[in-house]
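Recap quiz, item 2
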Amino acid sequence: MLDLASSNGQVQQDQGLEDSPLTIRGLTVSYGQKPAVFSVDMTVEAGKMTAIIGPNGAGKSTMLKAALGIVSPVSGQVKVFGQPLDDKRARIAYVPQRASVDWDFPTGVIDVVLMGLYRELGLLGRLRGDHKAKAMDCLDRVGMGDFATRQIGQLSGGQQQRVFLARALAQGADLYLLDEPFAGVDAATEKAIISVLKSLREAGKTVVVVHHDLATVSDYFDNVFLINTRKVAEGTVAEAFTADTLQAAYGGRLATAQVDQLALALG
Amino acid sequence: MLIDALLLQLGYNATLVAIGATLLGISAGVTGTFLFLRKRALVSDAISHATLPGVCLAFILMASFGGDGRNLIGLLLGSAVSASVGLWCLNWLTRNTRLAEDAAIGSVLSVFFGFGIVLLTVIQTLGVGRQAGLEGFLLGSTAGMLWTDAMVIAVGGAVTLLLIMLIRRPMTLVAFDPEYAAARGLPVSKIDMAMMGLVMAVTVVGLKIVGLILIVALLIIPPVAARFWTERSDYVVLLAGLMGGVSAYVGAALSASAPNLPTGPIIVLMSFALFLISLLFAPSRGVLAAILRHFRFQRRVHMRQGLLALAQGQPIYEKLTLRLLRKRGFVRADGVSTDKGKARAAKALRDEHRWAVVRSDQAHEAAAALYDGLRQIETVLTQDQIAEVDRQIGGPKEILA
């Protein structure tokens, strides 16, 4: 199931470890006294799709938010393409959980995608035809071109998620961080999103996804990062996504039958 | 008299008040929209009540140094300082304690206002300066408005509008999706602070006309009313500015047209009238439109179900369904379907099959999203597309005997 040929094939991009798209060292984040993420190290491999996996409340989203500077960590260091985060913001695109915004906000589908062009537009730059064309192109890539003029309030959950992905695409970034993009979406959306993510990988981009569906991990991803407040395992799917690591991350929360089944699927 | 007032023919003071109020109304409506979109409308209430101690302290300070305690610029500066302190307390409480923002607003608002009232009482017993009229800041008082007062309001309002033009894009982005904005490197808390600063500026500038208790109405009601009419945030901003300006202008004119009509409260009532009109009559989001839509929907459901029942030869018992079918000439008085009814029913059934194809085909997703069980398929697909769908079904089904 793991495609070894491709995992060796794409390392030729001359990127040493220090040029990894995202490195996290000793990251601790806490809401109040209880740490949500404790002393975590992570090194994201360039040009690969990495899944961040762990039980509910394991700090998956928090880690992503800390990596992006949305929440401030207690301690730890984040480097993006070998540089401090603020120097490389333009190369990161973030797709938040769709439930994090109010979809009754008065705005249209294409306007949300145009938010992705915020840096190009600046404070007072005029919205030109080529901006709109770019946004339309991104909507087409997620199969939402026909929805451009609709109100965001009319979208289904899966469609909302694809609009968020289109907004991230509009940024033209090199590193994509997605928070639970497959949570509560329809099968068509899941297919559309995964094919867009795979096309990003083809183009040499790096994709990191907070993921909850263990059954699809080995189909979708090259690498896995298992977390339960602390790091449990990190590596290729074959190395890090095993019955042992899953047991360590989920403890009793994962039914043994489920683990056996996955282990079987992993061969 | 009212016509004269509306045409600014009622003398110098009335004209000053009308112009000042209009500018204030526009900038309050525009500023308030961003607060409303950020879902922090009530923060403006805390800010406005927190101005009172500052007004009083500034008066005491100016009077005790032998100056005119009622110098407007001095009083407004004082109010701005204490409003900032109030805002800082509010932010500190929400960020560093487990207090939710609504509780923090309640605490800050009442404590600052209470302290202000105490100071106001103290001033009245002090007997320094000409303290009469200080309580006019509570509900606004325009009787003795000076040219300089109007200028302060005009300049303050214009500067506020200009600043909003400058940072409207980041403010909108932060209002819609603060986490995404933060991930893009936008200084979210600074943008929020700028927004609150603008709200404070409008509040301070508006103290003279509508007073600190009612300024919140000018900040909140116009955006809420404007939201009924449009689904685009930039239009909400423009409409709210327009509604704020109109209600302030008409309100000021109205209060000038008769003796003893308080300007601030009349302006607030005017904006409430606009709100009421919007609430009732706005298309799509208004209350009447919603009721009409519900009835229309109900009738379409009955019509559709009736036609499908006819097509499948099932009996119809619902009175409303029968009545609707009879009215359109689809059934006779005894409930037997007419030729017209048969044709229409066959079409309804065929459309059901067409919809089933459309909804199962991802290529038609945009059309399928409009499916509500009622919509005519011709309104979402072209004739060519329908022909293609029919090919997939295998031609029109022969249902009728």
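The domain at 4-266 of chain A is CATH 3.40.50.300 (Rossmann fold).
Chain A touches chain B at residues 65, 68-70, 86, 89, 92, 94, 96, 100-102, 105-108, 111-112, 115, 118-119, 121, 123-124, 143, 146-147, 151, 153-156, 159, 167, 177, 188 (CB under 8 Å).
End of item.
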